[in-house]
């Protein structure tokens, strides 16, 4: 095998066919790209061929061009005779076709239709494209293919190999004999502690085992290089009311520092298709899309829903708002891939999908997103935002609408943070909500001897424009939807240079504040005492129900404890301050995890 004694800026890697592959395949090259390879791709290739390691982990932000980098490396290894076979492992069926098409343009023939039952593939191909699930189903088939000749295995979004213990074991079995392994990821971390095959972990100064990336090209670097779009987040707050599975009525405001249980209930209420919150946010997002399409006529929007039922209902709401039928993509639908392709190549306004569009699916014209799902893990958030950062032309920016809840606001503010996968944790949940809290919100205690007389039920919701997040800065303040103050932000130009976004938002912030100061304020009288007392009692009862369920105690015992610690008469006779003292006490109890 011939190795490179020294790399040069003009070093050629790969076949002449691969030279014609766009740095951002499958979409056309981003504005300003004049070289066959982007600087990071060239640098990563030079780093690889200096040592030619058996395992190499490249982490590059979505839209940076991981596919082009991988195929250029594969082409060079084939040219040198280092490998004779190539296997690409992708997360989804849809991506198998995408990889095969990209490889064809690079002069590499991959079979995306290979089935485990085939046993092997025709020799006119250089290799196959399979899914992680396909490998897990019959690892022995893929091990035999790997052993049959010197093989390169490309593990796309390699963190999926840790989705299940059996998947990780199957990947290790199937590709352990490979001559070379290239692992790719746009999000080099998982929310759990399942180890990722072929990834090296090293301990940091705190003793935490972190994944070691051989080459990293993060969102912050890509933004500086004008490779990806800047992302502006529009956060919406509001008041939510719901009935718990214990029959208690709850009321809370999105964005307030409530307990996880209350935040989860309020968030879930906001996403209810029958409520005002999601309907108003979809209206505002469509107004934003209209402004973007004035400069980018084919710009599209994506709503990501928690489940299929909500996806269909959101589509009905959008149909009523726009008068047009949105594209609906469901994960178990055989025609999902073709609908995504048709939407990508067309100019229709909206697509509504469940999680399958959160990763790896390239729809470059997406410019506006609505985060209408309950997931709050850093991995899922980064994957979803990755659908909007792919840049086609100078000045394109992305806008994502989301609930004003602490977990999402924190992730939006840390979009440029580089993360590694940790096998050890200093704290239980990284200060984020567990996805399971949403599902648990509607379920009674499994240990109850009798069926719960109530089911979780959203009662009402309202939406309020909260703020704009761009980088680590925040702009704007609480205003009513469809107001001039909201339009100050959702009406910003659809094409805007990245360096001008922050300055424009600062000017809009100042203009909004001036309008609010100059507007005569109607004097609002105080709420009747009985209304305030009722709300405080409802909140106290809800907190008592949560603590009682966690401890497996009767409600009366928790009420008695809070009364004993804080003093005062029974709830019905307690003063406003006594009720608030007990609420404060129970929140501290929940924070301590008692």
From TrEMBL:
Name of the featured protein? Superfamily II DNA or RNA helicase
Which keywords accompany this UniProt record? ATP-binding, Helicase, Hydrolase, Nucleotide-binding
State the InterPro entries in the record: AAA+_ATPase, Helicase/UvrB_N, Helicase_ATP-bd, Helicase_Restrict-Modif_Enz, P-loop_NTPase
A Pfam family: ResIII
Which GO molecular function entries does the Swiss-Prot or TrEMBL record give? ATP binding; DNA binding; helicase activity; hydrolase activity
Say if the entry is tagged with keyword Transmembrane helix: no
Q: Which organism is it from?
A: Agrococcus baldri
Q: Which GO terms describe its cellular component?
A: cytosol
User: What SMART domains does the annotation carry?
Assistant: AAA (SM00382), DEXDc (SM00487)
Domain Helicase ATP-binding, first and last residues per copy: 47-206
